[in-house]
Amino acid sequence: MNVTVFGATGAIGSLTVTELLERGRQVTAYARNAQKVPRSWGDRVRVVVGEMSDPDAIDSAVAGADAVVSALGPSLDRKATGLPLVAGTGHILAAMKRHDVRRYIGHATPAILDPQEKPTPITRLIRFLPRTFMRRAYDEITGMTGQAMGSGLDWTVVRFIAPKDTPKQDRVRVGFFGTDKLGFAVSRADIAAFTAAQVDDDTYVGRAPAISN
Asked: What does each C-alpha distance from 130 to 125, 137, 191, 212 come to in angstroms?
């Protein structure tokens, strides 16, 4: 199976690439900065360098894929402007449709509700804070995710609240707010492992499971 990963050199994206390689997948990594590509990947990973505003480079990265993972996350820099990841996600989804790639896995926070969820105190809080204090980042995450959910593709959105740089934990909780017991903190390594597992698992197609430790 061939998997294309966007945001591949980020904290969670790079771990996801490693997880996919360990699972025997062929990986194409889309990177905006070639200098951030880990040397440990060697020739095991096909790297495509380009901006999220470059539809041709994105198309090249998606061509030949069986699944696409977007580990993209909005910048929290208050000096950042515009919504480049919203436009970039549009290019990704368009390329997937051109190349008949059905499976899409993305990342978000509980500011985004699963289609079958009702708001809870936690989801209201997680939505209120960025909408009030980090509006541009909030608009990016909602814009990216809304496009994926409305794309008609086989999407899954993995949601989490407080990612940590800790090893994989013994307990991983996966579920939905209002029905399942979920925590706040979660290891980035566990997010990556769960994300990688979704590429050929249809359990959460059309759903947005939340993950915590």
From this structure: 9, 7, 21, 20
Q: Measured in whole angstroms, how far is the alpha carbon of residue 213 from the centre of its chain?
A: 18
Q: Give the phi and the psi of residue 187 in degrees, each rounded to 5.
A: -70, 135
The CB-side HSE value for 41 (13 A sphere, CA atoms) comes to 22
Residue 200: which domain range? 2-212
Q: Are strands 173-175 and 2-6 parallel, antiparallel or unpaired?
A: unpaired
* Number of domains composing the chain: 1
**pTM (whole model) above 0.90:** yes
How many CB atoms neighbour CB 143 within 10 A?
16
| Cα atoms in the 13 Å half-sphere on the side-chain side of 12 | 25
Contacts 24+ apart (CB under 8 A), 50-55: 51/84, 51/88, 52/6, 52/84, 52/85, 52/87, 52/88, 52/91, 53/84, 53/87, 53/88, 53/91, 54/91, 55/91, 55/94, 55/95
Give the domain CATH number at 164. 3.40.50.720
Three-state DSSP class for residue 174: strand
DSSP character for 199? G
Kindly report, residue by residue over 26-80, the tens digit of the pLDDT.
999 999 999 999 999 989 999 999 999 999 999 999 999 999 999 999 988 888 8
Report whether 204 contacts 182 (CB < 8 A): no
Three-state SS for 156? strand
Residue 83, burial from CB neighbour count under 10 angstroms (0-12, 13-18, 19+): middle
3 in Cβ contact with 17 (< 8 Å)? no
